Predict the structure.
Amino acid sequence: MIARDEFKKPNFDDVYGITANPIRLIFMIGILWHLSKNGDTEGLQITEVGCWTGSSTLTWGQAIDEYFNGKGQITSIDPWIPYVNIQTNQTTTNKMMNAALEENRIFDVFIRNTSFLSQNIDLKIMREPSSSALTQIKKNSQDLVYVDGDHTYESVKNDIENSIPLIKEGGVLCGDDLEIQLHDCDETIYLLDP
């Protein structure tokens, strides 16, 4: 049973906060500060690819409150389905993440966490793969697109290619994480621990 006071703050405990890196959040807020100095400070449009439990969503929301008079839209794209191949990635963390996704707990926590966004922020949730969701967003409409979904090379490349047409002039395309490619590491280490 969930303690009543747990609903007084977002939940990033255990598996729910496993992907949140506090240092990157500072840079995310800084990007929106920069955008606020160079353009319209109302009606900011952000698309994020990959949301997990909403840490980045809340960070964008905090910056919208601070620098854009609390007015803006965040489009959150994530299918919230298991994505780690447990056959090749058998760590306890990966198993916990996949189980939480299978049981819909991650999406439920995302919904609860994002309920802490200010009411002026329009949150649009697209629970589908980025390959289809990004094609539904109007071209030249986004001030910022943040790519943090599937971290494999092909998926990141596709997300970047699909995001570029969406960005307004002077907008920002940024992201977090790309899994290392085999040609970028010592192959003997990879062969020891694939």
